Amino acid sequence: MLMRKIILLLAFSINIFIKFDAVAAPRVPDILTQNGLIYCTYANSFSFNPQTADIGASMNVVTEQIYNKLFEFKNNSAKLLPVLATSYDISNDGKVITINLRKGVKFHHTDWFTPTRDFNADDVVFSLNRVLGQNVELPSLEGAVNYENPQYRIFHEQAKKIHFPYFESIKLNEKIASVKAINPHQVQIILFEPDASILPHLASQYAIIFSQEYALQLNADDNLIQLDTLPVGTGPYKVKNYFKNQYIRLVRNDDYWKKEAKIENVIIDLSTDKTGRLIKFLNGECHITSNPEISQLGLLEQYNKKYYTKTIESMNLSYLAFNFDKPLMRDVKLRRAISQAIDRKRIIETIYHHNATIANNIIPNISWAATVNTPDYAYDYNPKQATDFLQNKKLNLTLWVVNEEHFYTPSPIKMAELIKADLAKVGVTVNIQAITRTHLNQQLKNSTGNYDLILTGWAAGNLDPDSFMRPILSCHMLEREFNLSHWCYPPFDEVMNNALATSNLKERANFYNIAQELILSEVPIIPLANAKRVLIASSQVQGIHMTPFGNIDFATLFYQ
């Protein structure tokens, strides 16, 4: 009865907003929507360079629209399709990857840059070396032997100030020894050791290709920061205007090397939260809305809105991590009992409104390495057994929660409260401490993270399990902000490394499932949920294909 009253009150409140305050956020000027589409998303972690951002709107807005990658995945599989590359070859020893590049691809002509050449190998070398921290190939000022700040030094110092979370999480600079151009349309990547994950990393949503010519121009003016704020790519759309935290206007790239986009203008509306985006959609101010408030989608039926919903399984995991720096948390029986105390089904119903699945495994079902069988020691809800072990221990635990909403943790504080209530039933007291991402990173940097448990999540940029499990659980990441459990288990790292040493997909999948079984056996984390990606679209918009990473390609859209 109480829940029914809450739902009715919420619906009434939104109804009031729709009737009286739906235009609180400024409408996009009508002139910009001619032959255009409005895509409503969120500004959280937005950057015009997705390499520098965590999961956020950058992926939806930038990767598929402004830039291109060397490769992409075919139909959410492990098979690679060439994009800016045309083919590749791997040496017999697995340490040399030769990539052949597409000819005739043009960079954007914008108000801030006019290219003088087409895309070539120099752009790939520059783009990869930038995230590797190896950009020393930029030339010094001609003839200025004694010049105290040659160009390459300026660039190198600037590059070191920029962080690339995804590539740092996989330690790409410890995988790739060098990148060099063999000729204008051929690049060679030299690896320290054979590594089957490299090409999937180059197909990830973070592996975009920049214009080296544009970077050189900016570097000459000591204005390299503009590379990430006024983008230049090879994609189907280019940036026309950007108003921070409000909207971005994209216009069609008439020089695009593939089929021309049908829609001329795209407005990316960044101005509202989940409820606000739904209100705008009801008002006809959004053609497509990403990550809407799931609990309120019933209002679309109430207002007879002509729409459809797109959902897809995603490479993500929300989980509760134990802090192994705390001696108490090193007891596997304790960790297993805490796992048995948590009602994950209730979390799926209350937090995700059934828009997620219970994570009985670590590797999400959408991955090519996922297993259909749940191991015997995947811990179902068993409060009686948990109580028998925990009730006399009088535990008082600190639970940290990063108070940021992501699609895989849509209501982190509320989820923490549910976990607290579950543990209270079995005799464990939990103190919730909400923190910011900045505070967390600072505490980890200073080794002062005083938590017993931490509620967090992870989303990968491709379907390869390596970039999913290694960053959050390997010994290699103990000193980084990714492995929040501070768990180090050498057998796990050994199996993960074995998976990289073979290019046979079945063998790799087998190794990753062994690694997964080790995690489920040792319980360094409690997997909670795998969330689905969701968007709603007006029935007049067709051609939407959503990837497991939330991306859609605006170039394929058209009006019915």
Automatic annotation (TrEMBL):
Q: What sequence ranges are listed for the domain Solute-binding protein family?
A: 80-475
Q: Which PANTHER family match?
A: ABC TRANSPORTER PERIPLASMIC-BINDING PROTEIN SAPA-RELATED, PERIPLASMIC BINDING COMPONENT OF ABC TRANSPORTER
Coiled coil ranges (UniProt) are: none
Q: Where is the signal peptide?
A: 1-24
For this entry, the protein name equals ABC transporter substrate-binding protein
Q: Which UniProt keywords apply?
A: Signal
Query: Would you identify the family this protein belongs to, as annotated?
Result: Belongs to the bacterial solute-binding protein 5 family.
Q: What organism, scientifically named, is this protein from?
A: Seminibacterium arietis
UniProt cross-references to InterPro entries, sorted A to Z? Peptide/Ni-bd, SBP_5, SBP_5_CS, SBP_5_dom
Q: Which PROSITE patterns match?
A: SBP_BACTERIAL_5
* CDD domains cross-referenced by the UniProt entry: PBP2_DppA_like
